[in-house]
Amino acid sequence: MAELTRLGGAVENMTFLRLDGELIVAASRSQGVELRTAPENEVIRVLATGIAAHSVARLPGRDGVPDRLVVGGADGVVRLYDLATGRQAAVQRVGEGAVQDVAVGVLADGTQVVGAIHDEGVVLWLPGSDSVITLPDSAGGGDVRPFKICAYRALGSQWLACAYNDNSLATWDLHDLDRGRVSREPRVHGGQIWSLIAVDEPASGYVVASGSADGTVKLWIADRNAGLRLGRTLYEASTVRRLRFVRDAETPLLVSASASGSVALWRFDGPTDRPLREITRHLGEVWALACATTSDGGVVIASGDMHGRVEMTPLQTELISDITGRDLFAAPGTTWVAVSGVTANGQYVACAGVDQTVHVLDPDTEMPSGGFDPMATARQPLALKAHVSTVRSLTSAGTALNPHLISGGADRRVFDWDPVSGGLRTELPMGHQGEVWALAPFRLRGAQYVASGSADGSVRICGLSEGDTASVLLSDCGAVNALVAVPYADGALLTVASTRGVRVVAVQSPDAVTVVSNHQISAACPLDDGTRHQVVIARPDGDTCVLEYVDPVARTVATGFRYTHSSAQVSALAAARIGQEVLIFGGFDDGRVMVWQTDGTPVGKPVRFGTSTVRALGVVEIAPPDGRGSGVTRPALFAADDDGGVRLWPIATGSLLRSGGSIGSAVRPASILLQDQPTDLDKLSRDGLIDTIHSVLMSPNTKPPVVVGIHAPWGQGKSSVLRQLRSKVDPAGAAAADAETPVEATHELVPRPSAKTPKGLFAKARTDWRGGVVRTRLTRAWAWRQIARPADGDQRLEYEMRPRAGTDGRAAITVWFNPWMYEKPDQVWAGLTREILTSITDRLPPAQRERLWFDLNLRRTDPAAMRKRILASYIPRTLVGMLIGLAVAVIVIMGVVAVGVAAWNNTDFNALLGSGAVIGITAAWIIGNLAFSSFKQVRGWISPDVLTRPAAEGVAAADTGDRDWKAARDPLENSQRGYLYMLQHDVREVVALATAHSPVIIMVDDLDRCSPAIVSDTIEAVNLFLNKAFGDCLFVIALDPATVAAQLETVYESLRRRAHDDPATFGHLQHTGWRFMEKILDLPIRLPR
């Protein structure tokens, strides 16, 4: 609870200062300023100004002078206070009206200057002098008044920004005052600007933030010509009263205080429609806000409201710190293992390694600078010696009243120790034939047991009661490097991590073994989140390390998160509940230690143990420095490394300040149900990532074929990223897909540069008759001429495909392919072929699309069959046509007969003229009709498929499909899948036509949801493009790599078995699925969570 205030009235403004090294906060009220301690929130002094103090600011101390407080009053006076005495150090009248805001900046010569605003403009005051400078063009004019001010550094200079009550924003360069006002942007907000702050953090990308009554926060970028340029807008639910910024480790964060009483955290690069978390909530509007960093690396946020209440909220930015770490022990060689345990005397830490000795340490005893002296009277570590080789594994078991410490070594022996006396209880008869690398305790039917895993590939269990014998639980499971036991029924489920993957087995029924992963594991630890027991495992994945969760009860594995840490790998893991949070600790092979939330969010920055591999991690309870003997404890992390050291870091138990997500925020029920459907709207702040992928794909320097992999588990937004990416690279295709309408024609066919173009007086008329510069009027006569061309399947088309005028010069064509829609591999090839062909050809106008398919199908056409089809097309096919043809034939026959009879009976020429005229007119009509038909379109006499898709028999294909029996059965003539299928369907020709002037991007979604056969065929199809069998395409594939790799492992099961049976010869064939993935993906991108 906050202390009662000594001054009444609302808290109008706040700032932090340091007094004798201690952090204090100055809170301004209507009758003066209070000085409060932080974070205790106790009032230690009141500066009674007698008038309302509207604004306060810190004047940083320099040259031995401590921090001083700048106060702007309602009487137009700026006062400077000495914090140690509470007396005024300087007083300066700066103008008429109240001083609404003050800020501290630095001139070009390094002189500190106080900026203040009053009704008539903005002034600069040099503290300790009477010098007051009015900034040029700073007066508002009319009823417009300056309202808020801030000083910020940018572009190598000091700047001043001022917000006016007409919502405009002006800037000045304090290092170049002769320049005058740099800019004044009108109405940058839709309401009163209540807060204007400098963002002194280059990593944020912004220099100024403004908050307004319109419920928005605007982030501004420095611009030398315009002063400030809008970069981003955040949307708050109510009026934004105050803004400040803090740092979470190396991540800058924005703090907002609103009229709703909420004080919240925002990421500069995070969501724009909601904060990361709410820090505190007042009962009224929050009018004052201040933030500062504490001496222990934390942050304290002070907030004051309209009712006069002041809240102090301390937050920890780092869970563990290099500053608080201390050495616990140093062994003469690598320390392989370290564990914690509990006895009646308290907790202990045990470590062991190449010195063949188990050391039992008191975590509350700090190691002397020269190491432990055996002759000293202080408490010494216990040294347990029985192993004759390196100790590779340790675990603690039993209870505080009956503690056990179990050790396993390279000498294949397992010992049970008393950690209190250091005495050897017994040697457990495990009988391993290899080094013992892992141990895990568990209870079985009420008795205490321990499991041991060895390099000989076996897991054995043995009770800890006298006379218990060992039994083999598993064998031939690879070199076991980690064991984790979780309680289950009256026994336990044992998770076995080895060089051959992860297995789960119930100790009470060892016959039921489940293989949940085939990947080699580098570390494992138990995790209890309060609802279920899980196991965290780490495995190498190229230059990154993947952390996954094993659910032993469900016997499943789920991807947790991937942490890219240059080339470092996780070599040790530990998990613990710290307060209300479940945290994961990871030690790396470069000597660093990191902390994550269970969703993969880093907490703080890594601490440095050393430069060698961290071999073990654990959590132990220790007494605080000022609480020894009181029974009060706090958690601490300990680690052991290759250099033999054991180091301990106290863990901060306060509320965590996290840059990646919310902590302890209340869950507000929604009034709607949301579908798990992809979206075109970026609600996860992935626009920067999408812009980067877009730049890579559209860059002229990107030479296809290239495959980009979008990696994430199911439900993490891969499809949304693809949709948003498609909207950027191909707006026309994305818009048509969303509206489910035909795509607009973005491309056209144009003659090749070497082609002859019609010239002369009738050139335009000829072009119009032909249907355009590329002929689209397809007639019988033109088709007959086309047959006479060389029947070369590789003959170039006489045109090329280009973007239409008015579109982007490199307008992309996207192909959306979802293999999850198909049940069989044959359907995958047909579906991919169809999507490629339709997505490309649909970008052409309909007439040009028909011309393209006619030309492609003509290549497969038998010339003789084509001539027959053309000649047969002159035969009337309708009833009316046949009747007219019959009538014409009758007329001709009758005319010929009449002429013959007349010529026989009478040789007079005039008598033959009438019948001859009838015959001539009829013959002329027939010839004219044939000529007219020769210039009619071909649509009426060929199969409709010829003009819309590949036809197996070319243009001459009959509707009835009377094909040769051999062609129907020969895969070279009629393949159902693979390379030949796509070759027969003109994929190479169509892709080559499109990619000559536009990139073709094939987007593959939901691959990780498909069956193994579908996954394999899809990867095979992509590989054909990578081998340039079908042109230069770009691929963007959304997938969960672990799932796809597992599916490929299933397809190539024979290779896996061969590698398993003969590892010496075929060991390189292991992990075939991952090898395929690494080979095919040029740029894998893991989506941030």
Write the layout of secondary structure elements.
Layout: E1 13-19, E2 22-29, E3 32-37, E4 43-47, E5 53-59, E6 68-73, E7 77-82, E8 88-93, E9 101-106, E10 112-118, E11 121-125, E12 132-134, E13 146-154, E14 157-164, E15 169-173, E16 181-185, E17 193-198, E18 208-212, E19 216-223, E20 227-235, E21 240-248, E22 251-258, E23 262-267, E24 277-281, E25 286-293, E26 299-305, E27 310-315, E28 326-330, E29 335-343, E30 346-353, E31 357-361, E32 382-385, E33 391-398, E34 403-409, E35 414-417, E36 424-428, E37 436-444, E38 447-454, E39 459-463, E40 470-474, E41 480-488, E42 491-498, E43 501-506, E44 509-517, E45 523-528, E46 533-541, E47 544-551, E48 556-564, E49 570-578, E50 581-588, E51 592-597, E52 607-608, E53 614-622, E54 634-641, E55 645-650, H1 687-698, E56 706-711, H2 718-729, H3 731-739, E57 747-751, H4 763-770, H5 780-787, E58 799-803, E59 813-817, H6 825-841, H7 846-858, H8 863-872, H9 879-905, H10 909-934, H11 965-969, H12 978-984, H13 987-995, E60 1000-1004, H14 1012-1026, E61 1034-1039, H15 1041-1051, H16 1053-1061, H17 1063-1066, H18 1072-1080, E62 1083-1086
Parallel strand pairs: 56-61, 56-62, 59-60, 60-61
Antiparallel strand pairs: 1-2, 2-3, 3-4, 5-6, 6-7, 7-8, 9-10, 10-11, 11-12, 13-14, 14-15, 15-16, 17-18, 18-19, 19-20, 21-22, 22-23, 23-24, 25-26, 26-27, 28-55, 29-30, 30-31, 31-32, 33-34, 34-35, 35-36, 37-38, 38-39, 39-40, 41-42, 42-43, 43-44, 45-46, 46-47, 47-48, 49-50, 50-51, 51-52, 53-54, ...
Helix pairs in contact: 1-2, 2-3, 5-8, 6-13, 9-10, 14-15, 15-18
